[in-house]
Amino acid sequence: MRVHVIDSNHLGRSKVIGVAALEAEDGSVTLIDPGPAVVFPEVRRGLERSGLDPGRVDRVLVTHVHLDHSGGAWCWAEAAGAQVFAHERGAAHLIDPERLVASATRIYGDEMSRLWGPVKPIDPRQVTPLKDGGKVAIGSVTIQALDTPGHAQHHLAYWLVEDRLMFTGDVGGVVIAGGPAIPPCPPPDINLESWKKSLARLRALLPARMFVTHFGEAQDPATRLGEVERRLDAWALWIREHLRNGVTEEQLVPMFERFVTGDLRAAGVNDDLLAVYEQADPASMSVTGLARYWRKFHPEAIV
């Protein structure tokens, strides 16, 4: 199974959202996290540049239904007749995206169209819900779905059993151009305890190679997963201490941006890559997501 990473050039910027394209021996293509609808034309072109036929996209595997990962799944269902696979708790949102769109609109407002493009329902016959351990067969290759909550309750990682390849969506962090791994923490589902269990599960599989949606192959999977956990703890504790001291979320955003920027700069990230990290993992989203985590699960810790 050959893996191609298609750069979707989201909003004209490279290395923000990478679409994994798995090329089977028979020429069929399986996409993992197709990105939002707004990048569909660029992903088509990217497949063609890689020598792949967009019309042979038979399957789309979604790690979770956040729009930067799943928003364009309907495009492939319509254009190529693809079967779409998603977590059993998220699949219904692909069939009827009304609640998903309403929730995202509360966050992104008038930016919805520019950021993500349209979101349309997928024919229920083209959506397959996956349970933990569910399998998708592509010729002689088996892809196993792994329930990996923490970033989202409906999150799956995908494990290519024979090749020991792992596709981690967002639970494996954001890793741009060989830079450090950081944890994307948007609302509403962030749960540190669940996320750490998911990371432990992924580490225990000893993946030979690991691919993240933001962006591409992350070298040295065990180290990257460890970085995600360390920063998840550090970010959460930073947010907790400031909430405990009475700092509002609005005040926290620029402070947290400086905190994260300082950490990334210390790890060798330059200005150009800082902009990519921010687009892939906005600091404001992590402030909201982590603040919600403390208020929902540990309110006693912030008083």
Task: Please summarize what this structure is.
The protein is α/β, with parallel strands linked by helices and 303 residues long. The protein has eleven helices and 14 strands.
Structure description:
With 303 residues, the protein is of the alpha/beta class. The protein has a single domain, classed as Metallo-beta-lactamase, Chain A. Helix content is 41%, strand content 19%. It is built from eleven helices and 14 strands. It has a six-stranded mixed sheet. Strands 7-8-9-10-13-14 form a six-stranded mixed sheet, with no helix packed on it. The protein has a two-stranded antiparallel ribbon with strand order 11-12. It is globular, with a radius of gyration of 18 Å. The mean pLDDT is 98.
How many β-strand runs? 14
Stretches where pLDDT is under 50 for at least 5 consecutive residues are none
CATH topology: Metallo-beta-lactamase, Chain A
Helix content: 40-55%
